[in-house]
Amino acid sequence: MAINPPVDATKTEAWAELQSVYDQMQAEGVDLKKWFAEDENRVEQLSFDAGTLHFDLSKNLIKPEMLKVFAQLADEVKLAERTEQMYTGVHINNTEDRAVLHTALRRPAEDEGKYVVDGQDTVKDVRETLERMYAFAEQVRKGEWKGVTGKEIDTVVNIGIGGSDLGPVMAYEALKPFADAGIKARYVSNIDPNDIAEKTRDLDPETTLFVVVSKTFGTLETLTNAREARAWLLEELQASGAIDGSDASKSEAVEKHFVAVSTNLERVAEFGIDPKNAFGFWDWVGGRYSVDSAVGLTLAIVFGPARFEEFLNGFHQIDEYFRNTPFEKNVVVLMGMLNVWYRNFFKVASHAVLPYDQYLHRFPAYLQQLTMESNGKSVRWDGTPVTCETGEIFWGEPGTNGQHAFYQLIHQGTQLIPADFIAFANTPNPLKDGDQDMHELLLGNYFAQTKALAFGKTADEVRAEGTPEDIVPARVFTGNRPTTSIMGVRLDPFALGELIALYEHITFVEGTVWGLDSYDQWGVELGKQLAKEITPAISQDDDALAAQDESTRSLINFYRKVREF
C-alpha cells in the first residue's frame, strides 16, 4: 500500500485557528487563576481516565473549547488513517520499508489470524515466542536451569544498548517490589570498559546468566561487552577450578551461562550460544519499542510470566483506548496535541517528566530515546523539509530530588517548560515518620508543585508575609507554568505498561502532525561510521591519523601523549 505524502499541518484550518487563539492569548495575557475563577467546570472538562490512569490537563495553557480544535487538527492531518495503517501493518516506516507493529507484541492470543502482515501471522508468532520465553524463565526461576557447576542462577545480566537496554533496565527498576524468585538483574550497555567491569566485579560466575540482546548479533557495543563477559566468565571459572580450561569445558560453560535475544542464529552459534536458547523479534519492532518483546526476557525471569502478561495487558489497554476513543475525548491524542501547541506556538524547546515515585527514576531516560530518537528530525516522511519546529528535549528526575535541583528554573526561569507530573495513590512501602505518613508527605509535594507552578504568588502576597521590599521581587512567582498531572492507583506491571504505551502513542501523534517517520533513526549512523574510521588512528595507524581534520588529529595526539597503558 502506497503511503500518501504528509499533510502540511501549518496549512490546515485548525493550525490557523490555533494561531489565532495563541495571538489572542498573548494580547489578553495568559491567566490560569482567572480561567479557573471564570469556569467552574474547567477541571471536569479537562480531566480524563484511561485504563487505571487519571489525567488532569486543567493546569495547561488552554481553554476547554480548544479540545475541538485539537481534534480538528488530528482529523486534518489524517491521524485516524495513519493510526489504522500502523495497527494493520502498512509499511509506514517507509525509509526502511517496514511495518510498525509494536502493538502486535501485546495483542491477546484470540487475535491470532487477524493481523497477517507480509504473509506472517504476527500475533501467532508473538505468542509462540512468548511461550518459549516463559518456559525458559520458569526453568531459571525454579532452579531447573543450572550453571556449569550445577548451581542455580541468582543474577541475570542483560547486555544490550539503546532500546535493548533502556526499556528493560527502566522496567526492572520500576517493578522491583514484584521480584519474587530471589533473582536480581544487572544491565550493561556502555562500551566504556568501566561499565562491564563494575557490573561483574562482585558477581559469582557460577550463578550468573548473561542475556545478550542484539537483533543482528552484530551491534558493536553489545558484542564487545558480550566477548568481555565471556572472557570474564571463563577466566573466573578456570581460576577457581570450576572448569579445567579445556575447549570442551569452556564450550559447556558458555552454553550454560549465555542466552541470546537475536534472529541471527548463525552468529549466535559462532559466539558459543546454543541457537535453541535464542529468542527472536522482528523487523517491525523498533528497538525503542521493544521492551515488551523478547528484549524483556530478563523481566520475565525476574518477575515471572504472569507479571509479564500483566505488563503486556497494560500496553494493550492503552492501545485499544487510543485506537477507539474519539479525538476530542482521547487523552493520548490531546497530550500529543498539547506538546505540539507548546512546541510550535509557544516555541518551547524542552519538556520535563517528573515522576513522584523513586521506582520510576529511569523513566525520563527511557523517554529520551523514545521521543527524541523518534521525532528529532528535520525531514518529513516523503523526503521534504519539515515546515515547523519538531521534537522536544525530554528530561527529568524523580520527586523531591528534582525540587532541590532544577525546579528553580521551571518556577522562575525565563523559559517555559511544560511538565508531566506522575504519581500513584498507593505505595508498596507504607512507612511513617512518627505520625506522618511518608507517602502522603511525598504526595503533598506532588500536589503543591503543580499548584505553585499554575498559580504562583503575587508581589502583594509576598508583602503580606512581611517580606522586606527589596526582597519582594525575588520571591514573586509568576505562575502560568503549564503542567499535566497523571495519577494511577499503584505502580504495578499493568500500570507501567499503560504508561509506556501512553508515551509511545503521544510520540506517534506528534510525529503525524509534523509529518515525520517516527520509526527510523538515521541520525545515529554517521557517528558510528566515523568511529570505525577514526579508531585505528588512535593508537597505531599514522596514515589514518593524517586523514583526520586538524582538531581530531590534535585531540588524538594529546591522547597518545598522556596515555599510560
From TrEMBL:
Q: Cellular location of this protein? A: Cytoplasm
E.C. no? 5.3.1.9
What terms describe the molecular function in GO for this protein? Answer: carbohydrate derivative binding; glucose-6-phosphate isomerase activity; monosaccharide binding
Kindly state which reaction or reactions the protein catalyses: alpha-D-glucose 6-phosphate = beta-D-fructose 6-phosphate
Domain of life according to the entry: Bacteria
Query: Is RNA-binding there in the keyword field?
Result: no
Q: Which GO terms describe its cellular component?
A: cytosol
Gene3D superfamilies linked to this entry: 1.10.1390.10, Glucose-6-phosphate isomerase like protein, domain 1 (3.40.50.10490)
Recorded metabolic or biological pathway in which this protein acts = Carbohydrate degradation; glycolysis; D-glyceraldehyde 3-phosphate and glycerone phosphate from D-glucose: step 2/4; Carbohydrate biosynthesis; gluconeogenesis
Record keywords: Isomerase included? yes
Where does this chain mainly localize?
cytoplasm
* InterPro entries registered for this protein in UniProt: G6P_Isomerase, G6P_Isomerase_C, Phosphoglucose_isomerase_CS, SIS_dom_sf, SIS_PGI_1, SIS_PGI_2
What are the entry keywords? Answer: Cytoplasm, Gluconeogenesis, Glycolysis, Isomerase
Location of the active site: 373, 404, 528
GO annotation (BP), single: glucose 6-phosphate metabolic process
Family (UniProt): Belongs to the GPI family.
Report the protein's function: Catalyzes the reversible isomerization of glucose-6-phosphate to fructose-6-phosphate.
The protein's name in its UniProt record: Glucose-6-phosphate isomerase
To which species is this protein native? Bifidobacterium cuniculi
